[in-house]
Predict the 3D structure of the following.
Amino acid sequence: MKEKTPTIFVVDDDDAVRTALRLLIKSLGLPVETFASGQEFLDSFDGDRPGCLVVDIRMPGMSGLELQAKLNEIHSITPLVFISGHGDIPMAVEAMQHGAVDFIQKPFRDQDLIDRIHQALDLDRANRAALKGRDTIIERIRTLTPREHEVLALVAAGKANKVIAGDLDVSQRTVEIHRARVMEKMNASSLAHLVRMVIEAEREPNAETSKRPPVTQ
C-alpha cells in the first residue's frame, strides 16, 4: 500500500501569515492546508493523515496551547511546531513540555521554519512506522514486568504519577522510574505515542494488554 504524502497544516488567525506560509511550504513541494482557527482545524482533523502542524501560539478564541491540549486528549501523535512572539516564550516552553517539537520566535527566517518542519515530519514518520507493526507493539508489551504492566495500564488510563503512586501504594519516584522504563521498552517518543500504541494493540480481540500478568510486589 502506497504511503500517504505528509501534509503541513497551518493554523493561524492572520490571513497574511497563512498566505505567506502556504506559499513557502508549497515551494518545498509539500501539500499544505491552512486554517483560520483551532476549531476549524479540529472540525476536519483526521489522525490517520501523516504530517505536522504549524500553529500560532496566541490566537483569539482557541489558543495554540488549547488546541494542543485538545489534540493530546484524543491522543493525536501529529507533531506541532509553534510560532511565538517575544512575549510568548513562557507559553512556548509550556508547549514543549506538553510534547511540541519546537517553537520558532517571530520574526524568523524561512529556513529556520523549514528546518523545524522537516524535524517534525521525521518524528511523525518514525511514530507512524512504530504504530504500523501491531505484532512488534505486542512483543514490546511482553517485555514489561508485572509492575510495569500495571503502570502502563494506569498511564494509558490518563492517571497522573501521584495518583498511580497512591493506587499502587508506592512512592511517586518509584512510579516515575517504572514509567521511564515503560517508555523506553515501548520505544515511545511521548505519552500520546504510548497511548496510541496501547490502543493499536488492544484492537485485536486477544491483545496482549488484555492478558496482564498478576501483580507481584
